[in-house]
């Protein structure tokens, strides 16, 4: 993505983001990392697992979104101490991002 594409977003760069939106973004990021870590990227290893008869599960984007919803619900429904800590970190990051412009 070039810088020219980002110029369209210049008008909203300082827009405030709600904690719920930030939590949803974090959950989606975690879900994408989850599926990235559980994917075999090496061709030789894939062939070896295939020869061993390993059961492969194929993922689609709705699977990632479903995992993100589960993670988001876990963050929001976890004990108040953890939820408070997550919200404080997100609020600090948002405040820092707004102040840095």
Structure description:
The structure is a single chain. The protein has 5 helices and no strands. It is mostly helical.
Cα shape: extended
Residue share in helix? 55-70%
| Alpha carbon gyration radius | 19 Å
Structural class: mainly alpha
Please write the string of helix (H) and strand (E) elements: HHHHH
Terminal Cα separation, in Å?
A: 21 Å
Can you give the mean pLDDT? 78
Number of helices: 5
Number of strands: 0
Kindly estimate the percentage of residues that lie in beta strands according to DSSP. Answer: under 5%
Query: What summary fits the major beta sheet?
Result: none
Q: Which regions are unreliable across 5 or more consecutive residues at pLDDT < 50?
A: none
List keywords for this structure.
101 residues; mainly alpha; 5 helices; 69% helix; extended
Overview in brief:
The protein contains 5 helices and no strands.
Helix-strand blueprint:
Layout: H1 3-6, H2 19-37, H3 43-51, H4 61-77, H5 80-100
Helix pairs in contact: 2-4
